[in-house]
Every structure is written in structure tokens, then in C-alpha cells.
Amino acid sequence: MVTHIVMIKLRDDVEEKEAQKVASMIDSLSLKVPSIVSMETGINFADEERAMDIVLTAKFEDREGLQEYAVHPEHLKVIEYIKSVALYSKVVDYEKI
């Protein structure tokens, strides 16, 4: 099993409704990308300087499934939108040992 975690930091001028839109767009991918085994998205509520704004955790059967997701046209559309509202993102991909 492969786990894919992405944390997104939104621009300061981005409102809460945009964060909700991003989370909703990400969530919709679980219905559009067959290689996703499971996906969970959350909006941060911690008021700390080091906090990120949105997190997604997705699971795939294997690395090939993650790669299929990475290049899937629906995923690329979501990435394009996220880039328009985000400062940056961080990613961790790992396989359970």
C-alpha cells in the first residue's frame, strides 16, 4: 500500500470558501480516478505559524496507481486550480513496510 500526503499553504488573501472549494475538488477525485483506494481531505483549524491550510491523504495499491493518479487529467485540472490559490505545497509518499 502506498500513502500520498500533500499539505497546501494558501495565499493570505484566500478566503475560507476557497479553501473549502479546494478540499471539495480534491475529494471529488476519489470518484474520478480509479487507482485511488481511499482519500481524505481536511482543512486546518490550528492557529500556528507553522500550520498548513489543507491536507490530503490518499492511498493506492502500489506505486503504479500513484503514478496513474499523478498524470490523470482530472487530477491535473485540480492541480492547476490549486496553483492559482496556493503559496506552496509539500508532499510525502511512502510505502508501508
Short description:
This protein is an alpha+beta fold. 40% of the residues lie in helices and 35% in strands.
Q: What labels describe this entry?
A:
four-stranded antiparallel beta sheet, globular, 4 strands, alpha+beta, 3 helices, 35% strand, 97 residues
Break the fold down into its secondary structure elements and pairings.
Elements: E1 2-10, H1 16-32, E2 36-43, E3 54-60, H2 63-71, H3 73-85, E4 86-95
Antiparallel strand pairs: 1-3, 1-4, 2-3
Helix pairs in contact: 1-3
Question: What's the multimeric state?
Answer: single chain
CATH architecture: 2-Layer Sandwich
**Please, how many domains?**
1
Q: Helix fraction?
A: 40-55%
Number of helices: 3
Describe the global form.
globular
Q: What is the structural class?
A: alpha+beta
Low-confidence stretches: none
- What about the largest sheet? 4 strands, antiparallel
Please name the CATH topology.
Alpha-Beta Plaits
End-to-end C-alpha gap: 9 Å
**Order of SSEs:** EHEEHHE
What is the name of the CATH class?
A: Alpha Beta
Strand arrangement across the biggest beta sheet: 2-3-1-4
**Mean pLDDT across all amino acids:** 96
Strand content: 35-45%
The counted number of beta strands is 4
Rounded radius of gyration (Å)? 13 Å
